[in-house]
Amino acid sequence: MSRQQRQALDALLRSVPRSETPPSPAELRTGFAAAMTRPAPAGVAVRRTVLGGRPALELEPAGAADRGRLLYLHGGGYVIGSPDTHTGLVGELAARTGLRATSVDYRLAPEHPFPAAVDDGLAAYRDLLATGTDPRELVVAGDSAGGGLSIATLLAAREAGLPQPAAVVVFSPWVDLTLSGASMRTKQDADPIFTEADVRAYADLYIGDGDRSHPLASPVFADLSGLPPLLVQVGANEVLLDDSVRLAARAGAADVEATLEIGAGLPHVYQTEHGRLDEADAALDRAARFLTSHLPTLVAAGHTHEH
Question: Whole-structure pTM over 0.85, yes or no?
Answer without folding.
Answer: yes
